[in-house]
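Fold this sequence, please.
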Amino acid sequence: MFPHEIFFFGSLFFLVGVGLESLKLNFLILFLMAGCAAVFVLLGFWKKNRRFFWIAALSVFVIIGALYSFSFDKNFKGKFVPNGAKYNFRGLVVNNPVSKGNYQDLNVKTKLSGAEVIILAKVLRYPEYHYGDLLVLNGQIDKPEPEGYAQYLTKEGISGVMFNSELNLIASNQGSLLKSLLFKLKNSIVDDFGKFLPYKESAFLSGLVLGERSDFSEGFKTAMQTSGTTHLVALSGYNVTLIISAFMAIFLTFFRRKTSFFLAFIFLIAFVLMTGAEASVVRAAIMGALVVVAKESGRIWNPRNAITLAGLLMVLVNPKVLVFDAGFELSFLALVGIVYLRPAIQRYFRIKEEAGVFSWRDNLLTTGAAQLMVVPVLIQSFGSFSLISLVSNILILGLVPYTMILGFVSAVFSRISYCLTLVLNWFIWPFLRAETGIIEFFGRFGLSLNLSLSWVFILIYYSCLMFFIYRSNKIRTSQAL
């Protein structure tokens, strides 16, 4: 095997081990994989074939992945177990509070039972609290229910939940100075969008540029879900690539290429921290960074290994994202669909390379491939799938890059000149009005697929997609010959 193949298959089998352990198949994994490794080692000696030794080594990677996940889970659960008792404690707000209706979610770091833990406190929206606030809380800490939600919070490092607790502010600005400044900058940009644009359009621009969704009305959230456009406000590798490229273009005006490249990555890290460093944003940042690194270094872009590296890094930091973070799963599957399924569809149906008017053909292929890849997970996680998402996305995706770029420029101008920002937002508003109009129009139809899928069906579905990609590659190879 070549080094890049060893990396890919080793990482893949490691991730399989993490995933199986997350599904509580601990003993079964160890027993089966140890047996497989022993069998393949014996076959390697008997047949004198190195391939069997490679397979045996890969089986061991499954065991390593399972043990890694088990160790992470054991260490986390050993910290603190909520029992419904009342606690009075001091804690530090370690997130940028998220507003949801009449409430705000605070992640509060504290010490309980001799261990440092994070408690999710759901408190009234007003008064508002901020990152770095030191609070005194008094209330009941419960174990999250149901089990799926508990696992999701475990992924976030949260041990328990408090509802309507009594709390008092002791001091402010007690957290990291850098994170505090970045969160304040983000909140300031969101406020500036609101000064120059109508409420709905400014909220949507905040979602596109910063992934901020707290100001969305319930009606608009429903319209986005029904029209299948919620992904627009989930920062992706495409968005991040735009961001890095924009920063590179700005810095190249003043600095050399290497200096500009370095500065652009510093800004990328700051952007990730400013948006809360969510799993989807970190994954997008890694993917976007790898694309730019490949272009700048002149090396061949290998999407398979890049996707694997992005997933591996995130799972090493937190193994729970692999199974218990729907956003992580959807973003990776959509990326796989765009990288592998999209060209397969284009080759099989002999679709022209031209993007088409308003990029409709390109948007159709990209959206169709991504949607086909994520359908089972969407239905399994949210219970439904929008049947009109393909049409709404074809109409809206061509406008999004221009809106994002203008939005970033507006965020910069708002730090410099009120008049320049006001004039620029006159040009941004038509884009935003068209996009929100499309979302609301298709959101009225309510055409969705509501099913309950078995794991057997999901396995068969993805097996069929993989076979289709394989057959399409065979067609390309035969045509080349």
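The CA atoms of residues 201 and 432 lie 6 Å apart. The chain is about 65% helix and 10% strand.
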